[in-house]
Structures are given as C-alpha cells and as structure tokens.
Automatic annotation (TrEMBL):
Native species: Comamonas testosteroni (Pseudomonas testosteroni)
Biased composition (Polar residues): 1-19
PANTHER family in alphabetical order: PROTEIN HEMX
TM segment ranges: 30-49
Protein name as it appears in the record: Uroporphyrin-III methyltransferase
The keyword Hydrolase is assigned to this record: no
Coiled coil: 91-121
Region (Disordered): 1-22
Pfam families according to UniProt: HemX (PF04375)
Keyword annotations of the record: Coiled coil, Membrane, Transmembrane, Transmembrane helix
Amino acid sequence: MSSDAIPTTENQPQDSLISSAAGRGAPMPVVLTLGAVAIAALVACGMLWQRVGNMQEQLARQSAQSGAQSVEARTLAKDAQDLARDSAARVSVMEARVGELNLQRNQLEELMQSMSRSRDENLVADIESAVRMAQQQAELSGSLQPLVATLKSAKKRVEGAAQPRLAPVIRAMDLDLDKLSRMSVTDTTGVLTRIEDLTRQVDDLPLINDVGRLRSRAPESGQASAEQAAADAALSPTQWAWWQGQGHRLWVAVRDGASDLVRVRRIDHPEVALLAPEQGYFLRENLKLKLLNARLALLSRQWESARTDLSSASAMLSKYFDTRSRRTEAALTQLQQIQTNLHSTEQVKLDDTLTALATAAAGR
C-alpha cells in the first residue's frame, strides 16, 4: 500500500465527527481534544510507518547479507568439497604408499630372517661336519685332544652367533666336554712312536750268545792302553808312576786273556746258547714283526691282540737278549710301560651335541 492511502482512510471518520460536532454545536474543548488525538494518531502512524520502513530496510540488508553469506558459504562449501576430494586422493595415495612400504618391510624382514636362518643352517652344518670329522680322527688316533679342541672352537662360534634357538647346542657341548674330561684313553700316537723307536733299536740289542759284540770292546781297551803308554812315555823309568803304569797294563792284558779263554755265564734256556750267528738275524726280524703286528693292532683298535704281541716281544727280549745290557733293560722297561698304559678305549660318542645340532638344523 502507498503512503497517501493510510491518512485518507484514517481521517475520514475524524472529519465526519468534526463536521457532525460542528453541526451540532459541540463545545470547543471536545473539538480540541479530538484534534489533538487526531494529530497524535497521525504522528504515531508516521513513526510507525518510519519504523516499519526501517525494519524493511534492515530486513533487506540482512537478506542481502544472508544471500552474500549464502553465496560465500556455498563457495566455501565447494572449496571444502574440493579440498576434501583432494585430501581423500592424497590419503589414498599415502595409504597406497604405506601399503607398499609395509609390503617392502615384510619382504625385507622375510629376507633377513631367511638370510639369518640360512647363516644359522650353514653354521650348524659346518659345526656338525667338523664334529663328526674330529670324532673319526679321535677313534683312529685314540687321542681326545682334536675332539676337545673342535668342541671348544664350535662352542665359541655358536656363542658368537648369539641366536637363542642355538642355546641347546651350547648346553649339549658343555655336557659332552664334561664327559670327555672324565674319559681315559690311550695315547695311540705316542704308543706308536715308542714302538717305532723300539723297532729301530732291535738291531743294536745284544744277544746272550753274541760273542762278537763282547770282543768288540777289546779295541776300546787297546786304545785306552795306548793312551796310557803315551802318558807313561813322558815319565822316567826311575819314577814310581812308570812302574805302576807298567804293572797295570800287564794286569789288564792277563785279565783280558783269561776272560777270552774261559767265560762263565748263567743261561736259563740252554737252546739260546745253541743259536747260530745267522739265526740271530732271523730272531731280530721276528722281534721286529712282533712289534709291527702290535702297531697294526693298535691302528685297528684290537687291544687284546696288541697286548699279546707286546707280551711276546717282551718275552723274546728276556729270553734271547742280554738283559745285563743297558739297551736291553731300557727296551724291556719301555715295553712294560707301553703295556701298562695300554687299555681298551670306549668308543667316543657325542650323542648330545649331534642330537642338538640335528634339532637346530630341522628348525625346531
């Protein structure tokens, strides 16, 4: 509605009242009152209209601001949607990369585990091979030193690997090392060396009826006499030392001659004195064969056979060789020591270590 229509409709009753009051002859105060009321009503209507207009303008401004804010909000929403789509795309790319990294990490861990497992398997296989070889060497040589050294070296290698699953192997090695420390074995290598030394000494051992070896001492006494004669030549025949030297040489000559003429010796086995010189050679060769058989028996781990051959060799030395000779006494003593130290050795078994290595190789 327009601004001119409002006062027109409102003033029509008032004009009619004024005209009617004037026509009737109403009093002046009433007229003035009515006029004041009409003016107040007009002023109120104007103020109300102005306020309504202000409200309309404010609503228009607010509507315009709301529209601008709505447009801005739609723009921001669109930007937010674009940003969200971009972020979602980036998140998808990052998730894909994270998935690839996880896959690569898993593959790397599997590769490292495979390499570690392969290294441990190679270590276990190497140690098992070394232990079995040392065990065979110990069985052949009769010495536990190579086996003990191999176990100690293998224990250090396993400890250096620092793998928890190889801990049972270390415990098994400790048990076997303790078991080996309580075992008593024959030093086969040392015994074989002593038997070889005895074999080389057989040709130098004197027989009981070996007269030629006794006569071989005569040149030595003659050489001593020559030295004594050279010393006496520097003396004068008038000196007592010269006469004493001459008497000593005469006594030695008479004694040696008498000993060559008659020799008394106790012989427990009469057949020994009847041995011909050429039979002495076969006797020595037979003794060498006895020692060689004992050596072969030791190498083949036949302890009883080795004892029998050594006892037979000792009996031959006591029966056919001169026991008063230092060489014969030394040979007999050496044979007795060998027989004393010779005892059967139980088979070396490293069941604990080999079982632990087999378990570790199986991956259990």
